[in-house]
Amino acid sequence: MHSVLMGKLLAARQQLGGNASAKVFKGMATLAVGNGLARVVGLGSIPLLTRIYSPEHFAVLSVFTALLLILTPMMTLRYELAVPLPSRDGTAMTLMVLSAVFVAATTVIVGILLWLAGPALLTLVSMEALMPYRWMLGVALTSAGLYEVLLIWAVRRRAYPAIARTQLQQSAVGSIAKVALGLLGLKPVGLLAGQVLGAGAGTVRLIRLFEADMKRYWRQVTLLRAWRLMRHYRSFPTYRLPSQLLQIVSSQAPLLLTAALYDPRTTGQLGLAMMTLALPMNLLGHSTSKAYYAEIATIGRKRPAEIRTLTYSVIKRLLALALAPTLVLLLFGERIFALAFGTEWTMAGEMASLLAIYLLFQFMHAPASHLLSVFQGQRLLLALNIQRAVLTLACFASGHLLELPITSVLLVYAITLSAHYLFSLLMSLRVIPR
Question: What is the pLDDT of residue 86?
Answer without folding.
Answer: 87
